[in-house]
Amino acid sequence: MPEILSSLATGFATALAPVNLLCGFIGCLLGTAIGVLPGIGPALTIALLLPITAKVDPTGALIMFAGIYYGAQFGGSTTSILLNAPGESASMVTALEGNSMARNGRAGPALATAAIGSFVAGTIATVLLTLFAPVIADFALRFGPAEYFAILVLAFTTVSAVLGSSMLRGLASLGLGLTIGLIGLDSLSGVARYTWGIPELIDGIEVVLVAVGLFAVGEALYDVLYQGEETGSRHRLTSIWMTRADWKRSIPAWLRGTLIGFPFGSIPAGGAEIPTFLSYSAERKLSKHPQEFAANQGEGAIEGVAGPEAANNASATGSLIPLLTLGIPTSATAAILLAAFQNYNLQPGPLLFQTSGELVWALVASLYIGNTILLILNLPLVGIWVKLLRIPRPYLNAGILVFATIGVYGMRQSSFDLLLMLAIGWLGVLMRRLDFPIAPVIVGMLLGPMAEKQLRNALSISQGDWLVFVTQPISAALLALTLLILIVPPLLHARGIRLQGQD
Asked: Which residue range or ranges hold the DUF112 domain (predicted)?
């Protein structure tokens, strides 16, 4: 414990440096604005900024990215409550009760409980991250190639199963990402593969290029083709102050949401959508005022906003644990953050706390600072974020395309990269149209080469014996868990259909 506190104090000294503090403030401000704008998420924003910040100091850039990540979780609740238009997918649940409260003149308390709940959950989750991340990193040092391959397979399966409308579509997207990740030079033999004689593909396809193409270009093109200009009714803001009864009902919901969200973020389960729905379900069951819930034709229950928002932010913080300690992203934004680390030749994993301890602890300290900045921003400036929604969608989409083109061309000054980005953008449109999740593509690209390397190392050590993956206790347990994840949900679904048929 004293060693952790000493490291954290050093991190605060670095994070409070004027340049890093400014980066954190810009990240929080930009992230909140991005969260407010429907359809524009933190993954897209960080992907767009990756090429531009490539030559910036890694500590400042990563602190800014963390601010964007956190800020988007805060900002996403604003449009959910005011316009019933979630800026982030994890804010969908907030819209259920929050918008009902806003329509009935209680937008202020709804926005306040969302902002304060995010602060409370984010701070508690950051304390847990501070205490447990080094412990998990030390434990992860015991992992060999077989264990790492098994946990990567588990990550593939869980992320792909959760991020999408069906497991099959998620695994198909993952397969596409794995295929793209194989293009280029073989990391062990140095032989070019799957390049089809195109010289520009020998070095492989940049993750940043694919991320910008799928998220930014794909989203803009899809919006132009299928969504058009969206409109919504705006509600007059009431006082931001919560009553004593609101506080009494919100505090337990914040704590429950934190306890539900943090563990889900800490395991390779993918995204904050599941814990927010679980938190909402728990609040409906435990509430002493069930008649107030929108589903029961009520005017909106404040705990239905407080719990899911806390779960959302706790999950976002928890997802940094597998990212920093194991190098495994559990969401689209975490996958882009992993690409940001790799941009600076940093590989998240057990050794990161030893090789780049100062940077990691500055990042952790910046989360404490960012939570405070975001609370100060979100309570008094809600009206400003709502005005951002008045930007016409055509102008917004045009700006995204221009920004994406400049960023990708700036990486290698290659016209081929621009054509590839546009092709990948149209692929993103097709995936959205057919309801295929995009995040598993990035996860497959990032983790595929790592899994291949660990697989080949494990087989090399065992002299080609595939039983090495089932004779090692940890890897065997992880593979068994992966098998259960693949088999149990379809069986339960089939059983449910059979029982409905009998009825």
From this structure: 21-442
The answer to whether 133 touches 3, Cβ cutoff 8 Å, is: no
Confidence (pLDDT) at 229: 46
Report how far residue 30's alpha carbon sits from residue 270's, in angstroms, rounded to the nearest whole number: 24
C-alpha–C-alpha distance, residues 400 and 433, integer Å: 20
- Please give the sequence-ordered ranges of beta strands (E in DSSP) within 100-198, or none if there are none: 184-185, 192-193
**What is the C-alpha to C-alpha distance for residues 223 and 204, in angstroms, rounded to an integer?**
29
- CA 146, CA 476: separation in Å to the nearest integer? 9
How far apart (Å, rounded) are the C-alpha atoms in residues 467 and 422?
44
Nearest to 440 by CA among 428, 452, 423, 453: 428
Q: What share of the chain is helix, strand, coil (3-state, %, to 5)?
A: 75, 0, 25
What confidence score (pLDDT) does residue 67 get?
84
How far is it, in rounded angstroms, from Cα 458 to Cα 198? Answer: 32
| Number of residues that make up the chain | 503
Assessment of whether the complete model's pTM goes beyond 0.70 = no
pLDDT above 70 as % of the chain: 82
d(CA 336, CA 72): 14
Q: Which of 24-28, 155-159, 359-363 has the lowest mean pLDDT?
A: 155-159
Cβ atoms < 10 Å from Cβ of 212: 30
Mean of pLDDT values over 144-152:
84
Residue 234 to residue 282: CA distance in whole angstroms: 30
| Those residues with Cβ within 8 angstroms of residue 265's Cβ, 6 or more apart along the chain or in another chain | 125, 272, 275, 314, 315, 316, 317, 318, 319, 320, 321, 330
The DSSP output letter for 38 is: T
Terminal Cα-to-Cα distance of the chain (whole angstroms): 58
CA–CA distance, 16 with 131 (Å, rounded to integer): 21
224-262: pLDDT as tens digits: 888 654 444 444 555 557 788 888 888 999 999 999 888
Count CB-CB contacts under 10 A for residue 3.
8
User: Scanning the structure block, which residue is given the tokens 């290698």?
Assistant: 412
